[in-house]
Design brief:
It is a single chain. The relative contact order is 0.27. The radius of gyration is 14 Å and the shape is globular. The protein is 27% helix and 31% strand. The chain has a 3-stranded antiparallel beta sheet. With 74 residues, the protein is α+β, with helices and mostly antiparallel strands. It has a domain of 46 residues.
Length: 74
Amino acid sequence: MAKKAKAAPDNFVMFDVVYEDGTKSSRRKINAVGLQKDEIEDFARTEIMTQDRKIAEMSGKPRGNIKELTRTDS
């Protein structure tokens, strides 16, 4: 019997990111515990930029600047 997929915890918010060079990154997860609704997007932008820097350090391939950030459902 197949198991049900687990729902994402309420404390995480997912975002799709479009970079200035046209590349896309889907379903980037941000921990939003304790944040107000109006703070989440600014916090997410900062967190995604931090994640991108860490990834660039490991891979040696830097990401461009974020052009668009869109919240996704689950």
